[in-house]
Design a protein that fits this description.
Layout: H1 2-14, E1 37-53, E2 59-73, H2 82-94, E3 99-105, E4 110-118, E5 121-130, E6 135-143, H3 154-164, E7 166-169, H4 186-198, E8 204-209, H5 216-238, E9 245-249, H6 262-268, E10 270-275
Parallel strand pairs: 8-9
Antiparallel strand pairs: 1-2, 2-6, 3-4, 4-5, 5-6, 7-10, 8-10
Helix pairs in contact: 3-4, 4-5
Length: 276
C-alpha cells in the first residue's frame, strides 16, 4: 500500500501542464466545465465586450461583465464530442429559461450561442469548439452598462464647462427610484465644490435627467428632486455657496442614448452641470 501511494504521488508530480488549470483561473459561477477538461486560458474583466454570432450571419456586440475561458482536454481523459459539448451548455441555459440563438456544430467543431434573462439583464454565452472537441472556449457576457470609476477633477470640470458650457456626470449615484445620494458619489461631488471655491464668479445650474422607465410625470419629479439633493449635498456637506447654484429637472425628455438598452438607459440617467 505504501509503495502504491508513493507511485501515485510520483505520477501526480509528473503530469504535464495541461493536467492543471492555469494559475488563478476558475469556472464561471453559472456554468461548469465539461468533465475531463482543464482551463488553458483565462480572461475576466468587470467591463468588456464580445461579438456574438447571429442567425443571419452578422454579429452582435454585447458589453458588460466579461469572461473568456478556454479549456483543453486533460492528459489521459476522454474527449467530448463537439455536439455533446455544445448541447450540454445549451441545455444549461434553456433549463433556466434561456434560448438558443445559433448552433452550427459539426464533427470537427463549431459554434453555439445562447442567451438567458437573469434579474432584469441578459447573459450571453458563446461556445467555440475546435479539433473535434479536444479544446473549446466559452465567451460569457453579463449585459450591463459600464460602471464609471474615473471622476472629473476640478480642473477638468472647468475645462469642460469653458469649452461647451455643460458637462454630464454619470458617477453621482442614487438609490433606485429615489433622490437619496449614495455614499460612493462623494468622489464625484467634491470636485464641484472645489471648482466653485476656486472661481468665485462661477454660477452653475444642476440638471437632473432620467431614463424613460416609468411614468413621465414621476420621472420629471424624480429628476427635480435629484438635482435639489445634489445642491443640498454641496451646500451642507461641502460648504458650497448655495446662492450660486440653481436646479432644474428634465425627466426623460432629453435622452443622449437609446432607452431600449440597459447601456443607453444608464447614459440617460445622469446629472449635468450647466454654466450660467
Amino acid at each position: 500500500m505504501r509503495i502504491l501511494m508513493m507511485l501515485c504521488v510520483a505520477a501526480c508530480c509528473a503530469v504535464p501542464a495541461r493536467a492543471q488549470d492555469v494559475e488563478g483561473s476558475k469556472d464561471h459561477p453559472m456554468v461548469s466545465r465539461f468533465p475531463g477538461y482543464v482551463i488553458s486560458n483565462y480572461d475576466v474583466s468587470d467591463f468588456g465586450s464580445h461579438d456574438f454570432d447571429m442567425p443571419d450571419g452578422t454579429t452582435k456586440t454585447v458589453e458588460g461583465r466579461y469572461w473568456g475561458i478556454s479549456y483543453g482536454l486533460a492528459e489521459g481523459k476522454k474527449k467530448g464530442g463537439p455536439l455533446e459539448i455544445s448541447r450540454n451548455y445549451l441545455k444549461t441555459f434553456t433549463d433556466r429559461g434561456g434560448s438558443k440563438v445559433v448552433e452550427n456544430v459539426h464533427a470537427d467543431g463549431g459554434t453555439m450561442v445562447a442567451k438567458m434573462p437573469v434579474a432584469g439583464k441578459t447573459i450571453w454565452l458563446q461556445t467555440d469548439i475546435a479539433n473535434g472537441g479536444e479544446m473549446y472556449t466559452l465567451f460569457i457576457v453579463e449585459e450591463a452598462a459600464m460602471e464609471q470609476k474615473v471622476d472629473f477633477t476640478a480642473m477638468e470640470l472647468a475645462k469642460a464647462l469653458n469649452a461647451t458650457g455643460s458637462v454630464a456626470l454619470h458617477n453621482i449615484l442614487f438609490d433606485t427610484g429615489k433622490a437619496t445620494i449614495k455614499a460612493e458619489s462623494a468622489a464625484a461631488l467634491t470636485p464641484i465644490a472645489e471648482l466653485l471655491k476656486s472661481d468665485p464668479a462661477l454660477k452653475l445650474e444642476i440638471q437632473g435627467h432620467t431614463d424613460n422607465v416609468g411614468a413621465a410625470a414621476a420621472n420629471l419629479k424624480l429628476s427635480q428632486d435629484r438635482a435639489a439633493a445634489v445642491k443640498a449635498y454641496l451646500v451642507q456637506n461641502l460648504k458650497a455657496d448655495g446662492a450660486r447654484l440653481t436646479t432644474a429637472g428634465f425627466g426623460d425628455t432629453k435622452p443622449v442614448a437609446d432607452n431600449k438598452t440597459e447601456e443607453g438607459r444608464g447614459q440617460n440617467r445622469r446629472v449635468e452641470l450647466a454654466k450660467k
